[in-house]
Amino acid sequence: MTAFLKSREAILLGAIAVLLALIASRFPAFVEPSNLARVFTDTSPLIILALGQTVVILTRCIDLSVAANLALTGMVCAMLNAAMPGVPVAAILLLAVAMGAVMGAINGVMVWKLSIPPIVVTLGTMTIYRGLIFVISDGAWVNAHEMSPAFIGFPRFDILGLPMLAWIAIFVAALFFVMIARTPLGRAFYAVGGNPGAAVYTGIDVGRTQFMAFVISGALAGLTGYLWVARYSVAYVDIAGGFELEVVAACVIGGISIAGGAGTILGTILGALFLGIVKNALPVVNISPFWQMAISGTAIIVAVAFNARSSRSKGRIILKSAEGHA
């Protein structure tokens, strides 16, 4: 119990509680269950993408193309629905996940087989995917009146007081808890990020593990692409612009180490919820939502500094020096 109270997760829980208390002192309606459910639903896309980003960062990589992946997949799904309204939502969901996974695989192959730094690869594909949106849409929007009721209704379908979008985020989180704790792949993510050299000696293929992380991240970005355009009933070129910053921020705030191999799924979820509460609270306290980007950037710097200080206190610098002399 004492160890948990000193953990990043406990600190985040305390910060969220303090933040909600401060907001409630001025706007009590913000903490009503119905509003908190809306806040969770608004944060669900961030939670889904951050979970995918988590496994990528755990392997000492980063995926800056997730928002562009989301946008391209969302535009394709919206255009398909506008052209063929009779296509079942289940088929569109499968298309979204498959398309996102392929884009993630492209990132993974270049990192794995060509040994290109992940940040360079994903910056490049981010630009390519954004450009493809304009090419296929010619800059035109797909609006609500062009989308079928089933297409836009699925993420909003209510079950036990929560829309399907929120339940999907919960389901994805549950899958990640199981994957990380119970599967060889989950353990491999930590092993590759913690010590790639040692991982090789235990029979883990570092490149293949990083590839799988990118595929998972891409598949979740694709899934979120459909959910995003269906929930907001619009698709356009700049959809989710800059959202990759929030995704990385959620991971880092949650304690996922940029150096790889450290952090928890619970931490990522709490990091996303913290940002989601801040984002929803800004208009309530009469602060422009555009400050969200500045807050996210500041949070990344503070969290990375905090993680670096914690790592030094645990001797990670000594470990790195030893690796450097090996």
What do these coordinates show?
The protein has 326 residues and is mainly alpha-helical. The strands form 2 sheets. It has a two-stranded antiparallel ribbon with strand order 1-4. β2 and β3 form a beta hairpin. The chain starts with a helix and ends with a helix.
Compact summary:
Helices cover 75% and strands 2% of the residues. The chain is built from 15 helices and 4 strands.
Main sheet specs: 2 strands, antiparallel
Query: Can you give the helix content as a percent range?
Result: over 70%
Which sequence of strands runs across the widest sheet?
Answer: 1-4
Which radius of gyration do the C-alpha atoms yield?
Answer: 20 Å
Total DSSP E strands: 4
How many separate helices?
A: 15
β-strand amount: under 5%
- SSE ordering: HHHHHHEHEEHHHHEHHHH
Overall geometry comes to globular
Provide mean pLDDT, rounded.
Answer: 87
Distance between the termini: 38 Å
Structural class: mainly alpha
Taking pLDDT < 50 over at least 5 consecutive residues as the criterion, the unreliable ranges are: 313-326
Task: From the structure above, extract its key features.
mainly alpha, two-stranded antiparallel sheet
Topology:
Blueprint (H helix, E strand, L loop, with lengths): L1 H4 L2 H19 L6 H26 L7 H18 L5 H25 L4 H20 L4 E2 L5 H5 L4 E2 L2 E2 H19 L1 H11 L1 H6 L4 H27 L1 E2 L7 H11 L11 H20 L6 H23 L2 H10 L1
Antiparallel strand pairs: 1-4, 2-3
Helix pairs in contact: 2-13, 3-8, 3-9, 3-11, 3-12, 3-13, 4-5, 4-6, 4-11, 5-6, 5-11, 8-9, 9-11, 12-13, 12-14
